[in-house]
Write the C-alpha cells for this entry.
Amino acid sequence: MALEFLGIYPNTPDDGSPTIWRDTETGDLLIQSYKASEDDIKAAQEVGSIPGHTTDIPDHEFMIRLPANMIQFIPRPEDEDNSSGNSGS
C-alpha cells in the first residue's frame, strides 16, 4: 500500500491532529480525527440514513468527527455532479 499525505488540521500541536491520507492504489481515504462522542452517535442514530438500514455501528467500524476545515483536503473527481450520490433521498 502506498499512501499520499493530503492534509492536516491547521496550526496543530505535534500530536493528536486530524490528518487525511489517500491510498494511491485504491483511492480510499485514511482519516485520523476525533472520536465521535456518545451524544454524536446517538444523534446520528436518531437521524438514521436510508430506510431499512441499521443505525448500529459494527465492531469493525467506528464514527469520527471531522472538523469542517478538513473537508478542503478530501479529493473530489473533476467531473463530480453534486446532484448524484448515495444520500438516500
Remarks:
- The two ends are 35 Å apart (CA to CA).
- The first strand starts at residue 3 and ends at 8.
- The CA atoms of residues 27 and 75 lie 9 Å apart.
